[in-house]
Write a structure and sequence with these properties.
This protein folds into 2 domains: 94 residues, Glucose Oxidase, domain 1, CATH 3.50.30; 300 residues, TIM Barrel, CATH 3.20.20.70. Helix content is 22%, strand content 20%. The chain starts with a strand and ends in a 23-residue tail after the last strand.
Length: 417
């Protein structure tokens, strides 16, 4: 698990409001570039003057006299060249907004939502949070233009309206080669004019992930706690595809939903055959999911047959299908090739019992946020790493391709799913 926020000690920080800064390891940057960046100090070498600030770890802040000095705990010492941080002097806090070396950077654009999902991992907040987008507009020019992929999540991004379109164009301008995956409940795309404007604003390599929780309205509307949401979501998907937007359907697996999983798969292959991908996702048991755990929890080893039937239906229809957020040991072996290591590295852990597992490198692990409700089927494999089929060595747990070949592989379940 990678820590993305921490308390700091600071000296000489002149700002009173939160501010963003790009990190660098290069102490020899030209002055014009140095004055816009924080120099990361990983050793006791002398720090040259001229940088916006100086960041050290596990020790008192140090640097040229009169400069902005920040001392952070070693938990965030992974910060390096090209990463972007947010420093809040008033709260003595540092937060990592972007990591150049990661393909798991996600941008929360709002905490507002028009669904109230029973398993929402990040419950919505109704307060105006336009300041989040203000910060993100500032962030994008600091992001490495060679970034492979970014995720957009919420809340419900479409509630931002025209400002979402502006933000997508902003990304397209500064990061023309970056693939973008956005989570949405899909409801607002029922408006043809909105869907059309959205399609014109998106970056070239783009996909939107939208949830379907039933093969009919009652189950889906119950899960999202919004009457009429099913019809709006399906119409939204139809509109997006009409305007050429790639769509991934996401199904978070929980009690009630898993009971109808083969029927949901049948609904998709009969009515939404043209979608670009289906992701069947394990539950992250935080937020509303934790509060409603007894009503929604389903152990993966108990719904293995339902999952297998659903995957067979989707795969036979040539719909690209993946299983997210599951450990290999709780899945039927026939489904291993569909399993993706999808849990983000900043909230991914492995149990102590799993350290001896020969398939550890292929397994997605568990959510560090959800240690209190795990499958009773989790156990280490002790046999060799490869399976032998027809005298051929066949690796298991093959990682997903990048979005340019289908979909962002590591986007979290989030509220939009």
């Amino acid at each position: 698990m990678i820590v993305l926020s921490a308390k700091i000690a600071h000296s000489g920080v002149t700002a009173t409001e939160p501010f963003l800064a790009r990190c660098t390891d290069n102490s020899e940057l030209p002055r014009a570039l140095a004055k816009k960046q924080f120099l990361v100090l990983h050793d006791n070498s002398p720090a040259p003057p001229g940088f916006l600030g100086y960041l050290s770890f596990g020790q008192d802040a140090r640097g040229p006299v009169g400069s902005q000095l920040v001392s952070a705990p070693v938990t965030v010492s992974h910060l390096s060249e090209g990463d972007v941080i947010r420093i809040n002097p008033a709260k003595s806090e540092i937060r990592v907004l972007y990591r150049r070396g990661s393909n798991q950077n996600y941008l929360l654009v709002t905490e507002r939502c028009n669904n109230y999902c029973v398993m929402c991992s990040q419950p919505p907040k109704p307060a105006n949070d336009d300041y989040i987008m203000d910060e993100l507009f500032e962030l994008i020019p600091l992001v490495d233009p060679n970034t492979v992929e970014l995720g957009i999540t919420g809340g419900e991004p479409t509630l931002l309206g025209e400002r979402l379109f502006s933000f997508l164009r902003h990304i397209r301008c500064y990061l023309p080669r970056t693939a973008v995956h956005m989570l949405s409940n899909g409801r607002r795309f029922q408006e043809s004019a909105f869907a059309s404007a959205f399609a014109k604003a998106i970056p070239k390599d783009f996909m939107v992930g939208i949830p379907i929780y039933g093969d009919e309205a009652n189950l889906h509307d119950f899960v999202v706690q919004a009457h009429g949401a099913f019809d709006e979501t399906v119409l939204g998907i139809l509109n997006l595809k009409r305007f050429g937007v790639r769509v991934e359907i996401r199904v978070v697996l929980q009690k009630g939903v898993v009971e109808r999983l083969p029927e949901i798969a049948e609904f998709i292959r009969r009515n939404l055959l043209f979608v670009d991908r289906v992701a069947l996702m394990g539950l992250e048991t935080i937020g509303f999911a934790r509060a409603n755990i007894d009503q929604i929890w389903a152990d993966p080893i108990d719904y293995g047959d339902q999952l297998k039937k659903a995957v067979v239906k989707l795969d036979s229809a040539r719909i690209r299908t993946s299983i997210y957020n599951h450990q290999l040991c709780v899945l039927p072996k026939e489904l291993w090739r569909f399993s993706v290591k999808s849990i983000s590295d900043w909230k991914n852990e492995y149990l102590d019992a799993c350290r001896v597992c020969t398939r550890l490198g292929d397994c997605g692990g568990v959510f560090s946020s959800s240690p209190f409700r795990l499958s009773r089927g989790i156990k280490p494999f002790l046999e060799p790493i490869h399976s032998f089929v027809d005298n051929r060595v066949v690796p298991v747990g093959v990682a997903e391709p990048l979005l340019s070949d289908g979909c962002l592989s590591g986007v979290p379940a989030g509220r939009g799913s």
